[in-house]
Amino acid sequence: MKSLSYIDVFTPRSLEEALELLDKHRGELAVLAGGTDLIIQLRKAQQKAPNLLNIYMLDELRYIKHDNEIIKIGALTDFATITESPIIQRHAPVLAEAAATIGSVQILNKASIGGNIVNASPAADSLPALYVLNATLTLRSKTGTRKVAIEQFYKGYKKLDLQSGELLTEVSFPAMKQNQIGMFFKHGLRQGDAISVVNGAILLEVLNGYVKDARIALGAVAPTVVRATESEKTLIGQRLSEDVILKAAQACLTSISPIDDVRGSAAYRKEMCVNYLYMTLWQMMRMVNL
Amino acid sequence: MKRVYTAYDAVRGAPIYTEDIVPENALRVKALRSEHSHALIKRVDVSAALEVPGVLAVLTARDVPGENITGAVVLDRPFLAYEKVRCLADPIALVVAVDEEAADKAIEKIVVDYEVLEPVYDPVKALEESAPKVHENNLLRHYKLRKGDVTRGFNESDIIVEEEFRTQMQDPAPLEPEAAYAVPEKDGTLTIYGSIQNPFYVLTGVSRILGLPRDKINLVVMAIGGTFGGKSDEAPWDVCAMAGLAALKTGKPAACIYGRDESMIAHSHRHPAVMRYKVGATTDGRLKALDADIYFDTGAYASVGPLVMLRAVTHAAGPYVVENVRVDSYLVYTNNLTAGSMRGFGSPQVHFAVESMMDILADKLGMDPVELRLKNAWRQGVVTASDAVLMDNPDFGVLAEKVCEELGWRRGEKHPDEGVGIAFMAHGNSLGPEGEDKSSATVRISSDGTVHVATSLTEYGTGASRGFVKIAASVLGVPEDRVVVDRVETQKVPDSGGTFASRSTLMGGNAVYLAAKRLRERIERLIEESGHKGLDVVGFVRDVLREEVSEYAEFKLPVCDYNPETGKGTPYLQYTYGVVGVRVKVDRELGVVRVKDIVAAFDVGRVVNEGYLTAQLEGGITQGVAYGLLEELLIGKKHKVLNPNLADYLVPTAADMPRVKVIVIENPSPLTPLGTRTAGEPGIDAPAAAIANAVYDALKIRITSLPITPEKVVAALEKSEAIAVFV
Ligand SMILES: Cc1cc2nc3c(=O)[nH]c(=O)nc-3n(C[C@H](O)[C@H](O)[C@H](O)COP(=O)(O)OP(=O)(O)OC[C@H]3O[C@@H](n4cnc5c(N)ncnc54)[C@H](O)[C@@H]3O)c2cc1C
Fold first, then answer.
1. What PROSITE patterns does the entry give (chain A) (predicted)?
2. B719 in A contact zone (CB under 8 Å)
3. Which end of chain B, C or N, has fewer beta carbons within 10 A?
């Protein structure tokens, strides 16, 4: 553990000032949001910690809006706000469900969705939900704004399409439609403050009892969150039945490449992935066929 | 005289802990620890480390002024390793620097050449002839339990069951890591402030390492942010000696404060165990024979392992009357991290084995597990497994009845994948065979009428000091707010022995009681002689005598005559008795065991302070549930510790615990003046076994190794289903 007392912290009062500072000190500043990942990493890091750009005061990055069937969330919005938001509960319940499982009350109040996205842990709990919602990230720098689909943002383990000088300011996605249902699952080793052994989100669009579209994202089973494309294919065009969902659950094995680690063996992770997909699809089947 | 800190100070964030009082400009001491579990040290080069700006000194074994040796029971551990390292916690060099950052940098610059030796990690393998030698002899202790003739016992048995159990290394994980701050005084003495559980033991160790006489060192006990055993053994000696050595070498105040990872590696852990049991009984459930081999892995050093082994072996047959008993227990050196004190002290391991065995047997006999236990449970006057008559007066019938009633034991319909399990426990009070148990206390009334209680027993959240206040106040007939427990400083308080083995209220409480009683009698005599009848004790001292009056008393328990060589004799005079029942629900797909309900009844003799008492019992149960389901220091393929942090070392959260119903029975011990039984540790003994038994009740799978992780449950279910298909 290291003392961090020598670090300089810049605390801008506006987004403009923040982007200005990021540009001026290109590559020398780490962005500090809630700090629930960053501070721990700095204390453990081998190299000297960088100076910090503390954006925690920028309330202009805290919002949840419903705009023309698009849901927009400011990057600094914390997970307690997200999970309690009526807009999210109504238009993206799968994200509300995922957000509620993050850490404990203290973490929920401090941790930002932007931090969860940029920290890029394969086990991050908001990511599978954002994947199935087809989320778009808004990245801003002094010179401009660009939008990236969340799946394009991750290039490998903790490799991001994010330039120095860029700040993540917003995450947005289409509001869920009437005929879409979504569910999130998480397997942790204890009931509170658990890091996911596997997690995942499923979003199904159902028309006249048939699956029109299916999106399944799985976490903690590969270097980045992955889409279970074979499982999705197995479902599309089908009516949900025990047979179909079992096949779909088993098909996920082609998409994942888990490793052995302190939270579980690869074999156990695979088994949990299949079991969770089956259990979650089974619940969705009940909802659809009611 | 400063008082002991209270819970109120802690919750309002008062600066009461060691780290809180370390000034900004104090020097920092950090240790370089071994890269290997077993290796010869060929060369240590500190020259580059000395070049790092801000570094004042880099110290190795050569710089130790006193004896470079430590050990709570056996002197087997170098304070700073030389020649050889035996586990990853071994410190090789100390860096003294102006701040942590400089110290960290310098540590990376120290070059150590090792010759790696083959390590041994399994306590059973370590006993083989060809095993690598951690010390001269890997077998550290061999203790026994003997009664009757087990061969005859098994011949007379109708049913015999056998099983092997394994338990994990549990970390005590107190909230505050180890810390010490040493200040060299002008008169050549050294004051060391620290998170110190047993100050007089630490004083012995530190004075030996530093080569300073005991009276030249004053150890001041700051508020202790938990210990659970981690601060009972040698970790506080190390931090105190490390800070003390730096202060001596530089002439400046220096602090040594462990980070979480260092703390989890360096302090004492619960002994991992391998336990092979065989039990025989008649068809009507009489226990005829119990035969066991028990291996405790003490890691690289003994610490208090020999004492832990004594407790384990003497509890190894459970609170049952068995006609014939043979237990051999082996305490073994390996290259694992050192095991020593941890809440329960050898007792949770054997309880897991014995209480699992009782259910396995009950199942074979087709008998109710509670009925089988009650049929064989201890009563006053029975002959125990060490062939001694029990003088104490347990009543398991009452305890079991209360738990079964409250839990709804096997009543009504069983829900799918739900199960109930039960375990009995008995926890020997005080030190028993671990040593002569003597405690002492001074109680004084100062001229302003304040009552002071002084012992060397420390307060780490158990409320023992509140108990002393209550006892002194009630004996002297004063309100509790007039009584102060003095802060523990080795130069100022009497040596009352260590604050371990749940002995504070039993041993210290009785000493405080005797000292207060003496003080009252003496002052009452003075009142009588001086003709001031009608004045109360404190009023007389304050208004008439106007000077301090003080009394000292010792309280001793008779020495127990259990002999570990013959395996016979009385190990403990009295015990705390308990019955723990749980209801679990197991998820077949995920392997997750959820504890839905816990009901536990304990015979605590007499209640001194109800709030603290139930807090201790609930806390023990919580840590016991974690022992059963969650906590394990994981060792990787390259034999590094994988989870020395609180993200991956799974201490339970509030969400992991169900409602815990604690029922307290007051059945005073006939053997001590206050009649109290101990409560700090007993809660941790039985939950793991009760959970394992409940999992069996739910799914008919028997998990014999702790912790019961989802992965193990899934694997066991697969195996049992495969067998079912096969059959
Ligand atoms: C006890 C505990 C429990 C936890 N439990 C969970 C859990 O259950 N599930 C889970 O997913 N996570 C968990 N976490 C991890 C963490 O809380 C989350 O990942 C959180 O969302 C991070 O957000 P933050 O605001 O704290 O980010 P920070 O720590 O401030 O930042 C994280 C990273 O993102 C960068 N960053 C932050 N904001 C921006 C931005 N707007 N633009 C560009 N870069 C940015 C930072 O530079 C840094 O690299 C837990 C952490 C702790 C300490």
1. FAD_PCMH
2. no
3. C
